[in-house]
Each structure stands twice: as C-alpha cells, then as structure tokens.
Amino acid sequence: MKLVVNGQAxxxxxxARMPLLWVLRDVLNLTGTKYGCGVAACGACTVRVAGEAxxxxxxxVATVAGKPVSTIEGLAAGGRLHRLQQAWIxxxxxxxxxxxxxxxxxxxxxxxxxxxxxxxxxxxxxxxLCRCGTYQRxxxxxxRAAGSAA
Length: 150
Prior knowledge:
Elements: E1 2-5, E2 8-11, H1 20-27, E3 46-49, E4 52-55, E5 68-70, H2 83-90, H3 100-113, H4 119-125, H5 135-146
Parallel strand pairs: 1-5
Antiparallel strand pairs: 1-2, 3-4, 3-5
Helix pairs in contact: 2-5
C-alpha cells in the first residue's frame, strides 16, 4: 500500500484494517503521534489527512492510501517552527505535553480551514482532551498563530 506521509512516499505491507496510528508509530517510526484511548475520544492521535483532522487510532490505513498525511514531525518546515508551535511556546501551553502533538495537528487543520477563527470556532474544532486543562492557553495560542491575539 502506498502512503504519502509528511511529503514522503512510503510503500508499506500491512493489513488494510490496521489503524493508521500503528502504521505511523510501528512501521514508519514516527512516534510523535501518541496513543491515548484507542476509541477516538481523546485526540492524542490526531493527524491531518488531506488537511482534515483525523483520529488515527480508529482510521484504517487503507482509507488514507494515496492521500497526504501530515504528522507532528512534518509540521515544522525548513528547520523553522510552525507558527502554531511558536505560539504554543509563547503561550506556555504544554504542561505534561502528552496531548500536544494531537492538539497542534487539530489546530493546524482549523487554521487551514479558518485562518482567523473565533473563540466559538476554536471551541468547536478543538475536541482534544488535555488532562492538564490548558484550554485557555490553547485558545490564546491559536489566536496568536492566526495573527489575531485575543
């Protein structure tokens, strides 16, 4: 099966039903995408598929064959942090950090769809769970990255 992950083509020989998460982590060794709950509830495993936020723990790899998949490892380009990553640092979003790769990928999908999101847009799009409760910082970081610090 052919996958395009972070702009790189890969040929993988896996069961078509295998969750994308395990292909990324165990086959391609891209361990930035985290396993959280395994039932698409927490969002730690969020990646982007063709620009949309997708919970990779329940996504059969066959459904993404040939589509562009972006993981946290591909968010920064040319050795420079993505504007969201910099905003995350500036707003001191991470505490334990476990959910952050999924949060960043969901936020990137949001900004791709809505370059200037409102608080309501952010609340609707950011369904990822954070045990540390940094949701207000996440919102500020998204606004900062959008250039509309609120």
